[in-house]
Design brief:
single chain; about 290 residues; alpha+beta; VC0467-like; ten-stranded mixed beta sheet; 9 helices; about 30% helix
């Protein structure tokens, strides 16, 4: 038998809580995290990132869309609260939503390609018209006339003569102005319908930080279910494992119905019920510890 033993695995090596709920223990007396349920979007050796799902702010999605100057064309989402996702980057929005189907992702990719080609074509035609106009001003005999085969329907030229942009419409999917024409996913990740998205393994969910997901909702489309939060919660390397060892959190596999379909005030108790315990039982155990 060898004299040496293999080193014990570190907590980060032996546990991965991606797509889990963190449920605050009663002893966690924190103004923000007390009695919270956190959905972990990512957990690895470098730390963890999650969103609180039961801490609503005092304004709704309708108000948020007004602030970012977008119409709200999803009555089913208009009155949903915007949540406090955590204490980090509270000025930024994070959208947790159902993963988009492969068919829809392919459709979005096709739309992006079409938009790119259409923009290029219109830009070329506009440049030709400008050149013809300049030549006419210089006394040439060239006649300025629109190309017969140019299909400009559904586009407009920017007021300053710059790159044409698609007009606002009720199209099924509206791409963000800053979104690239194509999305190159990470080598080990599936492509998403949106420009900046983290696909969460095992949960059928995605977290998107780009404006295009809001624009899709503004057009009346977008994800069927979503939760919008301002800010997120994060833990550095080994920090979450230390808090677990201190009995600050319970953990359980996440259930998307609690995130999207359960009234906010019931999410804490419903998360506990996944472990087969109630809030009363938990309080009693802590009281007798």
């Amino acid at each position: 038998m060898p004299d040496h033993q293999a080193p014990a695995p570190s907590p980060a090596d032996s546990i991965n809580l991606t797509n889990h709920f963190l449920i605050a223990m009663p002893g966690l007396e924190d103004e923000l995290f007390g009695k919270s349920v956190v959905y972990l979007c990512e957990h690895n050796e470098n730390g963890a990132l999650g969103l609180m799902i039961n801490k609503p702010s005092d304004f709704s999605l309708k108000h948020l869309f007004e602030k970012v100057e977008l119409p709200m064309r999803r009555p089913d989402l208009a009155d949903q609260p915007v949540f406090q996702g955590g204490p980090v980057q509270t000025e930024h929005g994070f959208v947790l939503h159902d993963a988009m189907s492969e068919g829809l992702v392919a459709g979005v990719a096709a739309v992006r390609v079409h938009r790119g080609r259409l923009r290029q074509r219109v830009t070329e035609e506009v440049e030709k018209l400008i050149e013809q106009a300049m030549a006419q001003q210089q006394g040439t005999d060239e006649t300025v006339s629109p190309p017969q085969d140019a299909d400009l329907q559904g586009t407009r030229t920017a007021p300053d003569g710059g790159e044409p942009q698609a007009p606002s419409s009720d199209s099924p999917i509206t791409l963000a102005a800053e979104a690239p024409e194509s999305v190159e996913p990470a080598e080990d990740e599936a492509e998403s319908a949106y420009a900046s998205t983290l696909r969460i393994p095992g949960g059928g969910l995605e977290m998107t930080t780009s404006r295009d997901v809001l624009e899709a909702v503004a057009s009346g489309a977008g994800p069927r279910r979503m939760l919008v939060s301002l800010g997120y919660a994060s833990w550095g390397q080994g920090q979450l494992e230390s808090e677990l060892a201190e009995n600050n959190w319970l953990t359980v596999n996440a259930d998307a119905s609690i995130i999207f379909d359960t009234p906010v005030e019931l999410r804490y108790s419903r998360a506990l019920s996944l472990l087969g315990i109630s809030e009363y039982m938990l309080s009693q155990q802590v009281g007798h510890a």
